[in-house]
């Protein structure tokens, strides 16, 4: 693939950040992100991408501060991507459904309660994948309608042996990255958190 044709993964969010935080020209930003210069101007005027939160390309490793500074000094210079986006994307792994031994299945509601209380950024789908549970079970624990609600004690799923620390860290990192990319973070009712803490 030609390096000149590479684009950042989230072009509009990147353009928003570059417009707000650099003195690059609309043409420079447009060429780097693959947007039209008029669209970049509309972003600067506040007519386009109003709800989109800017994504710092230096954090994602797409650009370096030195590269931005170089192009700010020379309006004719063109931004060069720091690393290939294609190389950073890993092909999805084919995973079989997670099997939880019978002896540990009774600990799942405790692990769900712990995740809901300590990591509200995790989506139900991520919790399902991490613990090998269902959305119905998560909802039951969240709403305290689970048949075992009186006995649920929030406990770390790693200590319970339901997942590894690296799997938990990876899920949390992915959830936080998704939260940065979306303008509206997922909300968990405060009363639910209060109930789980009891």
Structure description:
- The chain is elongated, with a radius of gyration of 22 Å.
- It contains 13 helices and no strands.
- It has two domains: 3-88, no CATH class; 102-197, no CATH class.
- With 198 residues, it is mainly alpha-helical.
- The termini are far apart.
- 24% of the residues are buried.
Mean pLDDT: 81
CA radius of gyration is 22 Å
Q: What count of helical segments does DSSP give?
A: 13
How far from one another are the termini? 55 Å
Structural class: mainly alpha
User: Major sheet: size, sense and barrel closure?
Assistant: none
Shape designation? elongated
Report the helical percentage.
40-55%
| Overall tally of structural domains | 2
Secondary-structure element order, N to C:
HHHHHHHHHHHHH
Measured by DSSP, the beta-strand proportion falls in under 5%
- Regarding quaternary structure, what we see is single chain
Could you list the spans in which at least 5 consecutive residues all have pLDDT below 50?
none
**Counted beta strands:** 0
